[in-house]
Design brief:
The protein is mostly helical and 142 residues long. The protein has a domain at 1-50. Helices cover 61% and strands 6% of the residues. The chain contains 8 helices and 2 strands; from the N terminus they run H-E-H-H-E-H-H-H-H-H. Helix 1 runs parallel beside helix 3 (35-44) and helix 4 crosses helix 5. The N and C termini lie far apart (47 Å). The mean pLDDT is 87.
Length: 142
Amino acid sequence: MEASTVAKVLVEKYIAYFGAPDYLHSDQGRSFEASVVLEMCRLFGIKKTRSSPYHPQGNGQAERFNRTLLDMLSILVDGNPGQWDDMLPFVMLAYNSSVHESTGVTPAIAMLSRELRFPLDVQIRNLSGREAHRLPDYIQET
C-alpha cells in the first residue's frame, strides 16, 4: 500500500471521526515510515513509534488481532476464498461485538461507549411487552 493511501485513510476514516491519536505504532513497513505519514503525524501531534525489525512481538496486539481476523475469515469463506472482502464487514461486526478477555468489554464499548445494534435488537424492541416476555421461551423451543 502506498504511503499516501495510508495517510489518506488515517485522516479520512479515523482522525475525521475520532480525532488524532496520541501515538501511532507500526512495524517498519515503508508505508508507515514514509515522509508523507511522518508529516501527517507531525501536523496532528502524533508520536510515531515502531517495533523492532524482525520482532513482531513488539506489535503483539496488532499481530494477535490479525491472527483472530484471519481465523474468523477462514471459517466464513471456507470453500469460497474469493469472498473474503464481502465477509470482512460481518467479521468486524462480530469481533467488535464480542467481549474480550483482556478488557472485559467489547471493542464497541471501549471505543463508542455503547453496544452495536443488530437487526434482532430492533425486532425485539418493536415487540409488545407481552411478546418480548415470551421471547426466551420461543428461543428455547426452537
